[in-house]
Structure formats: structure tokens, C-alpha cells
């Protein structure tokens, strides 16, 4: 069934009783060509592009819970390509181009809204850094406009421009950035992969990875053993645990990143806004809730509940930037488990085990990378060669020191993230 306006009208007049299932609920087959561990955004995108672009359909996506129940449904939905360093810049530019055609390609409304992102700055030094980043973005072929204080006042009149400690000097405007509906992204990719013959296996937890003579041969799961020629690990904050099943110790740590949403309000924030003197970012959802987040909880954890001191820290940053937040009631909060790499950049690479592939280390950039990650990872799995847009995301850079990226400027040290 294709989704279109006529179908919506027809189903509405018939009580919505004619909609088909978005995807099948198959039982596991004993053997697949490719097994993808992880049914989040990156895993589903990988399966979709393997089928859509490389014609590979004997594929299973294994998810220990339900599709989209991990980080892809636990984020602040921001989509952007305003990275400044070679390696990351090319990749996120590639991913944004895929975002811009994703709804038409999937025949699914992922609610991609290019409402624009404004990164505020609060000093002469930050203005210079914003100008350098903007020039790098424009050289990459993306959009960037340096805004002055008066420009920001016209676009963002609700901010506190005269705060004593951190007055707002201006911002870097990335008009093609914005948001997308995280659940819809997972559902659309799942539907697209299923339509092309991919088996999506929910409630199928991987308990072991089978390796013989240095080559992967399959996986052990809660629903039985599954043999496979190739196995791909793409499980975000659980990467270290799953990779350990294959005898690998990864150079990443798992941290909790909290997010928050207020009660529904009338439209007031038209863009995504980030605070230059604190790790705070905010936008308004289509349902009216103000969606925002901030820093990591700064200790390794697999618990997705977060802690109260970080809640207070994020609220302080929000109140400093826009005091009107104090009148809104907080509706709920949640935490995603982030796989933080030493240089703040991801890993998309093959491993020393033949047929075993790895996709992890997305730090703060996981959601915005979903189509780009899946596209590049599918290319690597299908061809054995890295995609040009992800050529710098090698695993061995942490052992050799060659090609280390440092988007945050914090250095290759876990404790500085």
C-alpha cells in the first residue's frame, strides 16, 4: 500500500479499517547472508540501503526489544550539517542531502522540518570561531550565514540579550538544518526495508557471536542460532557489550544524555537554538512541547534514567538564555545511552574478524547521521570498501594516531567529553 492523500481520504471514510501492517512479523530463518545487530535508526537504515541500492535482501535485523526503542526514540530530533572539520564535514553534508529526499524515497512522512538552526556566540573569540566554521561549511557546499546581534533580535526576540555574564553577540545560521520526527524515521525505514524483503526480528536478543578460524559464522540469539556470512554491529551505547562477544575491546565509553520536553504550548520557537556558553539546545515540537537537552551526565552508565544534578544544570542554562522557560511545566524527561569515542567522531569500519563490521561512536551526532550512516555502512558491507563520505571513520586510528578527528576541540581523552 502506498501512502498518499487519496488513500488517507479513502481510509478516513471507511473508519480506517483498511490500513495494512507497516511491516511483517517473520520468524527467524536458520541462515542469512547478512545479520544486522540493532534495530535502531542506523541498523534499519543500513538494511534499507543494502536492499534498495545493492539488491541484497537475504538480511535479518535483530532487535532485543522493539524497533526504534533505543536511542532513535530517545533524542532531541535535530538534523544538521554544520560541522567544521574535514572528515566529519563531508559526512554530515552527505547525510543531510539524504535527509532532504528521504520522505519521497520511503513514501513516508518522517516530518522533516528544515526550520533552521542558530548557534549563538557570546564573545569576539566565539564570533571568529563561528566565522571559520561558516566558511568551512560554505566551502563544503552547505549553507551558513553569520548573524549580528540585531539580526538575532529579529529572528529570536524572546532571548535575554543583555545578561551580564554572557551577552549575545550574534549567531551562525544554518537554514537547511532543522528537526525530524524520530519515531517516524524508524517506522519509515523499517517499512522500506520490509517491503524489499528484509526480515525484521523483534524480541530477538543476541547472546553470542560465532567465530571460526578468524571468520564470523553467525550469532546466538534468544530465538535460536542464526548462521550468517556477514554480521554488522550497530547498537549505539551497547557497542562495547556486543563487541565483547566477539572478543573485541572498543575505544568507547557509554554515557547517559538526558532530554526534556515541556507541556504543549502555542508556537513560539521557530528554529533550533543552541547556547554558546553552555551545552544547551532547544526547539519546539509539532505538538507544542519545548524539546531541549544539554550535557552528558559525565560518568559511564547503562542506565537511561539520568540524574537530578544534570537536570538542574540544563535548566540553569535554559533559564539563562531564555527566562520565559521558567513559566513552562516540565512534562517528562528521558535518557539515551551515548557511545562516546575519544575524538568525538564515529567508527564505520570492518574489524580484524573476517565478515564482522562495526558502526559506533556517534557521540552527540547519532540521530542526524541516520541516513548517512546507513548509506555508508551498507556500502562498506556490500562492497568491502569504505564510502568516500566515511573514509576517515577508521577503527585503527585510535591505535596508530593517524587520522584522529577532534570536532569538539577537547583532545583524544574520554574524560574530557
Keywords:
single chain; 417 residues; alpha/beta; FAD/NAD(P)-binding domain; D-Amino Acid Oxidase, Chain A, domain 2; 2 domains; eight-stranded mixed sheet; 10 helices; 18 strands; 28% helix; 26% strand; globular
Write a structural description.
This protein is α/β, with parallel strands linked by helices and 417 residues long. It has helices spanning 5-13, 41-54, 88-106, 124-140, 149-155, 182-195, 239-244, 308-321, 370-383, 397-400; strands spanning 31-37, 59-62, 78-79, 117-121, 145-148, 170-174, 178-179, 199-201, 206-212, 215-221, 224-233, 253-264, 272-275, 280-284, 289-300, 330-340, 347-350, 356-360. The strands form three sheets. Strands 1, 2, 8, 9, 10, 11, 17 and 18 form an eight-stranded mixed β-sheet that branches. Strands 5-6-4-13-14-15-12-16 form an eight-stranded mixed β-sheet. The chain has a two-stranded antiparallel sheet with strand order 3-7. Strand 10 (215-221) and strand 11 form a beta hairpin. Helix 2 runs parallel beside helix 6 (182-195) and helix 3 packs across helix 9 (370-383). The model has no long low-confidence stretch (mean pLDDT 93).
Amino acid at each position: 500500500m502506498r501512502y498518499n492523500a487519496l488513500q488517507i481520504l479513502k481510509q478516513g471514510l471507511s473508519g480506517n479499517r483498511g490500513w495494512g501492517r507497516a511491516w511483517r512479523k517473520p520468524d527467524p530463518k536458520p541462515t542469512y547472508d547478512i545479520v544486522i545487530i540493532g534495530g535502531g535508526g542506523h541498523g534499519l537504515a543500513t538494511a534499507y540501503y543494502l536492499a534498495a541500492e545493492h539488491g541484497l535482501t537475504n538480511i535479518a535485523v535483530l532487535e532485543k526489544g522493539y524497533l526504534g526503542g533505543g536511542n532513535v526514540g530517545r533524542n532531541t530530533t535535530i538534523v544538521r550539517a554544520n560541522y567544521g572539520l574535514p572528515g566529519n564535514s563531508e559526512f554530515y553534508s552527505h547525510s543531510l542531502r539524504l535527509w532532504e529526499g528521504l520522505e519521497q524515497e520511503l513514501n513516508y512522512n518522517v516530518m522533516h522540518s528544515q526550520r533552521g538552526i542558530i548557534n549563538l556566540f557570546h564573545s569576539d573569540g566565539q564570533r571568529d570561531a563561528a566565522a571559520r566554521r561558516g566558511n568551512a561549511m560554505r566551502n563544503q557546499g552547505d549553507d551558513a550565514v553569520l548573524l549580528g546581534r540585531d539580526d538575532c533580535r529579529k529572528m529570536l526576540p524572546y532571548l535575554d540579550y543583555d545578561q551580564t555574564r554572557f551577552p549575545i553577540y550574534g549567531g551562525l545560521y544554518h537554514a537547511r538544518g532543522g528537526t525530524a520526527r524520530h519515531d517516524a524515521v524508524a517506522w519509515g525505514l523499517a517499512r522500506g526495508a520490509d517491503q524489499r524483503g528484509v526480515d525484521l526480528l523483534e524480541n530477538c536478543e543476541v547472546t553470542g557471536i560465532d567465530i571460526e578460524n578468524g571468520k564470523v559464522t553467525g550469532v546466538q540469539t534468544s530465538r535460536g542460532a542464526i548462521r550468517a556470512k556477514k554480521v554488522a554491529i550497530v547498537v549505539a551505547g551497547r557497542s562495547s557489550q556486543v563487541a565483547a562477544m566477539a572478543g573485541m575491546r572498543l575505544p568507547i565509553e557509554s554515557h547517559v544524555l538526558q532530554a526534556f520536553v515541556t507541556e504543549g504550548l502555542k508556537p513560539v520557537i521557530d528554529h533550533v537554538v543552541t547556547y554558546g556558553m553552555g551545552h544547551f539546545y532547544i526547539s519546539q515540537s509539532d505538538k507544542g512541547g519545548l524539546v531541549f537537552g544539554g550535557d552528558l551526565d559525565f560518568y559511564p552508565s547503562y542506565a537511561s534514567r539520568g540524574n537530578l544534578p544534570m537536570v538542574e544544570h540544563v535548566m540553569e542554562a535554559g533559564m539563562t538564555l531564555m527566562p520565559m522557560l521558567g513559566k513552562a511545566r516540565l512534562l517528562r524527561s528521558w535518557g539515551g545511552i551515548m557511545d562516546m569515542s575519544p575524538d568525538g567522531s564515529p567508527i564505520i569500519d570492518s574489524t580484524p574478524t573476517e565478515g564482522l563490521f562495526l558502526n559506533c561512536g556517534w557521540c552527540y551526532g547519532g540521530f542526524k547521521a541516520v541516513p548517512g550512516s546507513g548509506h555508508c555502512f551498507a556500502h562498506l558491507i556490500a562492497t568491502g570498501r569504505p564510502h568516500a563520505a566515511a573514509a576517515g571513520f577508521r577503527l585503527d586510528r585510535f591505535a596508530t594516531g593517524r587520522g584522529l578527528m577532534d570536532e569538539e576541540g577537547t583532545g583524544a581523552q574520554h574524560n574530557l567529553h
